[in-house]
Amino acid sequence: MGKKDLNNVQRKAVEAIDNPVLIFAGAGTGKTRVLTHKIAYLVQQKGFNPEDILAVTFTNKAAEEMRNRIHSILGNKSSFLNIGTFHSICARLLRKEIRVLGYNSDFAIYDTSDQEMLIKSLISNMRLKTDGFSPSMYRSRLSLYKCKLDYSEDLVKNVSNPFEEVLAELYPAYTKSLKENNAVDFGDLILFPLLIFNKNPKILKKYQNQFKYILVDEYQDTNQPQFELVKLLSGLHKRISVVGDDDQSIYGWRGADIANILQFEKEFPNCEVFKLEQNYRSTSTILSVAGAVVENNEYRADKKLWTEGRKGEKVGLMETFDELEETDGVLELIQQEIQQKKRTFKDFVILYRTNAQSRALEEGLRRKGIAYNIIGGMKFYERKEVKDLLAYLRVLVNPVDSISLKRVINFPPRGIGAKTVEKCEALAEKKALSLLEVLQFPEEMGLKGKQAAGLIEFFHLIEKYRGLKDKLDASELSSVLVDELGLTNYYKDQGTEEANDRLQNIQELLNSIDQFCKHNEDASIRSFLEDVSLLTAIDTWNDSSNQVTLMTLHSAKGLEFPVVFITGLEDGLFPISRAIEDPKQLEEERRLFYVGITRAQEKAYLHYAPNRRRSSGAVGFGQASRFLQEIPEKYLDRINFHSALTRRLVKDKKSDKYKLKHVRTITSFNEFGRGDKVEHRIFGKGMILAVEGAGDNQKITVVFQGNIEKKLISKYANLKHLS
Q1: Alpha helices in 16-99 (DSSP H)
Q2: Beta bridge partner(s), residue 645
Q3: Rounded distance, CA 395 to CA 436, Å?
Q4: Which one of 5, 15, 32, 295 is the catalytic residue?
Q5: How many whole angstroms separate alpha carbon 485 and alpha carbon 496?
Q6: Which pLDDT tens digit goes with each residue over 473-489?
Q7: One of 33, 146, 599, 612 is an active-site residue; which one?
């Protein structure tokens, strides 16, 4: 291992092995390099056998990267190292030791879908009254309890609402059923080794002797069981190194505990602490902006990122009227970056706080023919709750669409199960009728009570709205349908973050339909569905490997891009509304901003839109995010941008007829804006009517004296601003 591969602090962190080691590794400071070199140092310089070393991280991707880097240093010796995620390491351990808990080594590992199916079955068999709460919600809460080391016997004593009453009955039954099926869930993979170690200290000592040195990556993301696990395994020899960054702790909502890294010195006396502060990713301006925001957090270790690299450009800040204009602004900046700096689509990432924000961005990218990819989430129109409502609309337009009908026949729940649907399909085949038509004959299928009532109710609902579809426009019809289905209360009553996201996506779809109706003469359901089907078509002419990336801020951790856009920077959205009154949550939101902007290598743009449509559907005047107010003005480049809706006659390729179409036209961008008074050396004085595009190809429409209208290319026009 050459010293030239490490800076001074990195080298010291690598060579410290006699005491517990805590390495604060800021964004882009080379933490993976330190971990891999430390493992190589242990083997090559300190005589550790590869099989004596345990290296734990959080993702398979990170584990594979670590494994490949170490192999390039150690060669075949690296194959004996114990490298993996917490879950994979514990699964290996349990295959050998789980008999202690009454399981056999062939146990199954249930994923979230398996867990929810089991919970659904238990709810049915136990006849629990869930009041509309989904198996997914119970699974999510059970997982959170396990992250916090809460057990069912404690839960029973502390129930405070009907949901927890059901959960208290469900938890022990769920645990029992898992064991009967010789199965474990993801939480059990971490909990069960702890139970085994507590039950049989000899087994604990065996693994303490086996793992003579322990390294943990992304330590700020550990939850309580993971902390207990590494503490027990290192309890004999105290040879442990953890690497992490408290400023990037953004998963508190799913059980991660930032105290694990901030109180490491207390839990591991004689600990040596190293701070990796030299950044190798971003410009100094980007680091200054990130630091200016995160330094407002009180609960953090003192550190400051710096770089020997270039200062870089100022961070762009753009205010737009609403989310549609925000999308126009992002797209124009992408075009400007491509034209002026020869970038490609893969150089850009657009980040947002909630998945619902992607809808306007996706539609804008499609209109421009720009290929994109969503990481950590589905495309807007592919999300379940969106597809559910679209399926209702499709049945109204095309009643023989049995696929869409079966999707929603029991959503929201109305007591129509799979067996009932099978009977309906059999009768439809026998009578040569559509699936919808036979729903009015439950008696012919031997159905009574709840099932029969559910079928009749659904049939009359569809018939009612089929009668209204030609009387109301798409916006009115879909809004009334959502109200009658009770979707707002259905999701609100669940009270989970997931349900809230689904409700926001439903509202975002209604916003989309409303915008469609306002800007299209044919505002029918059929027209909207046709428009959606065209929007979601894949543009095959684009190179799939050269795409703009869209993702939530939470999904972006660990990634980097030349250019980063952070959208939706308004109080109530980012930071999210529930965090504004909670100092602990607000600090996590601030860390989330820090994570987002430190993904940028060369340029970052920040966007906010005061008139963004909220989850309620209302257009409210919002304030710029408090995080923007924490950034010194000297680091910001305020970008002037406005666009407007204009009407154009567009020729229809199929009918050869012209129709009125609404398009968005840029009226100002950076130097020139609509209404600006200018002077040209030939045409004289004039006023700008419109601005289109940006950069070298920016076009400006000017009306000069004598009512002479000219369209000029900004780069060559040499226009002079007049005060």
Answers
A1: 31-44, 60-74, 86-97
A2: 664
A3: 9
A4: 32
A5: 20
A6: 889 999 999 999 998 88
A7: 599
Tens-place pLDDT, residues 239-270: 999 999 999 999 988 889 999 999 999 999 99
From 168, 238, 176, 229, select the one nearest 204 (Cα to Cα).
Answer: 229
Place of tokens 């010293």: 3
Amino acid at 697: N
Nearest to 367 by CA among 548, 605, 534, 540: 534
What pTM, to 2 d.p., does this model score?
0.73
SS (H, E, C) 27-48: CCCCHHHHHHHHHHHHHHCCCC
Residue 561 has φ and ψ, to the nearest 5°, of -145, 150
Q: What is the 8-class DSSP label of residue 623?
A: P
Token pair 């359901």: residue: 525
Active-site entry in 29, 115, 130, 248: 248
- 281 counts as catalytic: no
Residue 599 annotated as catalytic: yes
In angstroms, the CA 498 to CA 270 distance is 43
CA–CA dist 721, 503 (Å, integer): 48
Distance between CA atoms of 509 and 410, rounded to whole angstroms? 21
Whether the CA torsion 350, 351, 353, 358 is positive or negative: it is positive
Reduced DSSP (H G I as helix, E B as strand, rest coil) percent helix, strand, coil of the chain, to 5? 50, 20, 30
- Annotated catalytic residue 248: yes
pLDDT at position 542: 35
Catalytic position from the list 52, 116, 217, 246: 217
- Say how far apart CA 322 and CA 95 lie, in whole Å: 55
Cα separation, 147 vs 164, in Å, equals: 17
Helix axis angle for 201-210 and 224-233, nearest 10°, is 70
180 token code pair = 């009967």
Q: Which of 169, 218, 245, 602 is labelled catalytic?
A: 218
In the annotation, is 245 catalytic? no
- Name the 3-class secondary structure at 241: strand
State the Cα–Cα distance between residues 405 and 409, nearest whole angstrom. 6
- 412-447 pLDDT, tens digit each: 988 888 888 888 988 988 888 888 998 999 888 888
Cross-strand partners of 215: 55, 241
Residues with Cβ within 8 Å of residue 368, at least 6 apart in sequence:
331
Helix (H, G, I), strand (E, B) or coil at 678: strand
Q: Which of 10, 11, 29, 31 is catalytic?
A: 31
Q: Which whole-number Å values give the CA distances from 213 to 1, 84, 192, 233, 648, in the listed order?
A: 19, 15, 22, 9, 70
Closest CA to 174 of 213, 203, 141: 141
Identify the CA nearest to 263 among candidates 231, 295, 296, 292: 231
